[in-house]
Amino acid sequence: KAGVTQTPRYLIKTRGQQVTLSCSPISGHRSVSWYQQTPGQGLQFLFEYFSETQRNKGNFPGRFSGRQFSNSRSEMNVSTLELGDSALYLCASSAQQGAGEQYFGPGTRLTVT
Amino acid sequence: QKEVEQDPGPLSVPEGAIVSLNCTYSNSAFQYFMWYRQYSRKGPELLMYTYSSGNKEDGRFTAQVDKSSKYISLFIRDSQPSDSATYLCAMSANSDSWGKLQFGAGTQVVVTP
User: Fold this and answer.
1) Integer Cα distance of B85 and B81 in angstroms
2) Of A29, A32, B14, B35, which residue is the least packed, with the fewest Cβ within 10 Å?
3) Are A63 and A79 contacting, i.e. CB atoms less than 8 angstroms apart?
4) Alpha-carbon distance B79 to A98, whole Å?
5) Do A42 and B106 meet the contact criterion of CB atoms below 8 Å apart?
6) 35-94 in chain B: CB under 8 A from chain A
7) DSSP string, A10-63
8) B43 to chain A: which residues are within 8 Å by CB?
9) For B14-72, what is each residue's pLDDT tens digit?
10) Nearest of A24, A18, A11, A2 to residue A79 by alpha carbon
């Protein structure tokens, strides 16, 4: 069974631009969570989606948004990029909301210049 | 104070030794406990998943949870150089917030041949 896939793997953007990252969960998994990983703050929860609905949200500004499609694929969008948004963005999927292990993708490394 | 505390290391051990890792937490609502391994430039890989208190063993890995002390541990027996990685503890409260994992900072482990 294929794992969680994320595209693109690497991205370089300029301050003020916006970016969209994509995540395809493991086949059959319906829950997708997004995390930001930085050397200073570690792994921080962004949001969780299940059945196209946002179920939980972390403490990030409104510039960070996401959505989930009917096939469980998910996207996250960051608008008006800031230098501090440079990070590894990780997506994790699980079979159902509220139970089961979470499996992570390889991440998208975003660099903002 | 962070909800989950984890010594960042690095922790250096000789090949064949037992690696002992731990995390403490402050939120008594945490019920689900996980350990992830993350190699450089990769996404976290789930190693162990435990619900509530107790021990769980899987091959060379043993996870322990002591909810009364708010303390979790991971032991790696017969450590190998391939175990060199960053180990992250993660936890969540009730099933409604399952997707919202709280991570420790991660402990860097180096197993020397």
Assistant:
1) 9
2) B14
3) yes
4) 33
5) yes
6) 36, 41-46, 49, 88, 90
7) EEEE-TT--EEEEEEPPTT--EEEEEEEETTTEEEEEEEEETTEEEEE-S--TT
8) 4, 90, 104-107
9) 999 999 999 999 999 898 899 999 998 889 999 998 888 889 999 999 999 999 999 99
10) A18
Q: Where are the beta strands (DSSP E) in chain B?
A: 4-5, 11-14, 19-25, 32-38, 45-51, 54-58, 61-66, 71-76, 85-92, 102-103, 107-112
Task: Indicate the residue type of B104.
Answer: G
Q: Which of A66, A63, A90 is nearest to A78 (CA)?
A: A63
> How far apart are alpha carbons A36 and A90 in whole angstroms?
6
**Residue recorded with tokens 């890995």:** B61
- Tokens of residue A98, six digits: 């509220």
